[in-house]
Amino acid sequence: MEPAPVTCDHKCYLQVGEQGGDSNLRRRKPSHMTASKYVVVGAGLAGAATAWHLASRGHEVTILERSTPANHAGSSHGSARIFRYAYPENFYTRLVLESKAGWDELSRLSGKQLITTTGAVDYGSTRQPERLAAVLAANGIEHELLTPEQARQRWSQIAFDTNVLWHPGAGVIDAETTVTALVDLAVAQGAQLQTDWHVSSIRSSGSGYVLRSADGRESQAENIIISAGGWLPDLLNDLSLPEAFLDQIPAIEVSQEQAYHFPYRDPSEEARKTWPTFIHKREGIQTYGLPGGRDADWRGQKVAEYNGGKLLPSASAQDGLIDTANRQRVIDYVEQYLPGLVPEPYAETTCLFTNTPTEDFIIDRAENITIVSPCSGHGAKFAPLIGQFAADLATGTGTVPEEFRVGTSAQSTAL
Hints:
Elements: E1 33-41, H1 45-56, E2 61-64, E3 81-83, H2 90-110, E4 115-117, E5 120-123, H3 129-138, E6 144-146, H4 148-154, E7 164-167, E8 171-173, H5 175-188, E9 192-194, E10 199-205, E11 208-213, E12 218-226, H6 232-236, H7 243-248, E13 253-263, H8 269-272, E14 277-282, E15 285-291, E16 300-305, E17 310-312, H9 324-337, E18 347-355, E19 362-366, E20 369-373, H10 383-395
Parallel strand pairs: 1-2, 1-12, 2-9, 5-14, 12-20
Antiparallel strand pairs: 3-8, 4-8, 5-7, 6-7, 10-11, 11-12, 13-16, 13-17, 13-18, 14-15, 15-16, 19-20
Helix pairs in contact: 1-5, 1-10, 2-5, 2-10
C-alpha cells in the first residue's frame, strides 16, 4: 500500500501531514535594492549558522533565501537528522566534539531543545565497528563494543549481524527548529532576512558584487557567502571567481534521496524510547534509521538507504517522486533486519543530498566569495562549527581545515 500524498507549500514532499516549527522570524518586505557588507545566500543549516556567527560579531549581514528558511525543497527541513560521534577517522570525530560546544551554546541562547539524546548503534560487515570503537576510545568518548547476542538482548527490535558499536551520546537533531533558532538569533542581532529571493545572477561591481533576483530585485555586497546546497551547481558558473579556483572544485553530485517511516510494532511510549539511531553497512546496501519525530507523528522509525536515490543536475530538477524499486528494497530490508517495525511504510518523503567524491565538505574562499557546502549526507551535526569556519574565512580572521579547501586530496571518510 502506498502512502497517500498530501499537498503543502514550498515543494514539500513528505507524504503525510506535517507540523511546522514555530518561528518569530522578522522578515523584511521585498525592496528593489538592499546593501550589506556580507550577504549569505541560502538559509539552511550552514547558511543560517554563518549568518548567526557574522551577526553576533557585529557585522552587517543580509540573508537571501530563495523560499523560506528550512523549506522542504532543501536539505535542512524536518525534525530528524542524526547526531553522532562515530567516524572511522579521528578528523571528523574531533570536529563533532568541537561542534557539540556550539550546539550547547545555541540551545542555551535560543532556549530550545535542538538535540534529543537516543544513543546510536553501528554495525555491519563493512561498517567496521571495531575501528569506530578505536577512534572513540582515542578521543575519550563513552562507548561499548558488543557481540551480536549482547546487542540483541538490549535491542530485540533489531537483528544484528556483526559486532555492534554503541555510543550513548548520539541522538537526533531537530533541523527545522535549529534553522529557526539560528535565523532568529541572527535577526535579533541586526541581520536582515529576505525570503522568496531567488538569485539569478551575481556580478562584480566596483569593490563588491551585485546579486540580482529572478523578479528584478538587487542586493549589493562587499562579501558573499554561497551556502546554496543542491542549487550550488546552478550558481557556480555564474560566480565571478578565478577559473583556476573553479577548476579545482571537486565534482558535485546532487541526488534525490528517499526515506520511509515504518510504524513501531510496540507503539507504547516506553518502547519508542528504546529505539536508538543506527547505521548498518554491509555488502550491497548501506542503511540508516532514527526516530522520526514530528515529521511523521512520532509513530515510527525513519529508515533509508544511503545514497540510494537518482542523480540530478541540481536541486532545481527534483520532482519529489518516490522510486518504487527503492521503496521495495527498503521494505525488504526492514522485514529482514528490523523485526520491531511493521514492514509497511505509513509515510515517505524525498530529500536532497549533495555529495563530493571524498564525502568531505567544501569551505573555501576566492577573492570575496566564500563557498560553503557541508554536504554528503552527514553535514547537519556540524552546523554551528561550519558557521564559525565560514564566518572566520569570510572575515579573514581564521582558516578552515585543509580537508575542506578546494584542490586538497583527501581520503574518503565515508559514513
